[in-house]
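Data deposition worksheet. Section B asks for the primary sequence of the deposited chain exactly as it was used as input, without tags or linkers unless they were present during the calculation. Section C holds the resulting structure in token form. Section D is free text for depositor observations; keep each observation to a single sentence. Incomplete worksheets are returned to the depositor.
Section A, Depositor: J.P.
Section B:
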Amino acid sequence: MTNGVYIGIDLGGRDKKTTGLCVLAEKGDIECELVKGKDVLKKIRPYLKNTKVIAIDAPLTKGRGKGNFRLYEKFLSTRTFRQEKINPLPPALMSKFCDFARELRAKLEKRGFVLDINLIEVFPTLTQKLCGKNLFSILKNKKFLPKTENQKSALICAILAFLHANFKTRWLGYKDGFLFLPETTLWEKSWRKKLYQAWQERDRLKYRRLIANIFK
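Section C:
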């Protein structure tokens, strides 16, 4: 592939072939596959020189709250998100996976990627709910259909990497971790209202340190 590329990783187990990996090229080419988690770095190494952003669905930082939740994860566990079944899993229930995700982050940082700059954490399930089909409107190759849910999630991650490189993402979080989402122009109208209401109704004391630029 020539020109810039954007990498999406739906991280799975270290030794199981459950990691979705997607490479999205500026010229429109899409490559998605399933790999073992431990093989991710080897698979993406040929692309790193031309990679503009890497987006990963996995906890890249460690929370200090109950259940090792980051502050933004606590917010996404409130009623609005629980009812839609898009609340995050407690990191404490998957400690080995979280350790593995942070190991991958460290290896990518050694290769010049900077967290929250050109290495971002994303949540494909939430992104899909917010945007619906709007999310795939940016793809030049409309005929591509992922074969598995892991590959679909990886493609969503790659799209978010592309959006981030083009200043079309927004963030939610605190110093314990930030989550990146598409700008609201890509959201379904109903979700613009739902998330805005959830943000307005949040406990101002509990979430006083939580910051976001979603609605700007």
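Section D:
The CA atoms of residues 6 and 160 lie 9 Å apart.
The chain has one domain: 5-212.
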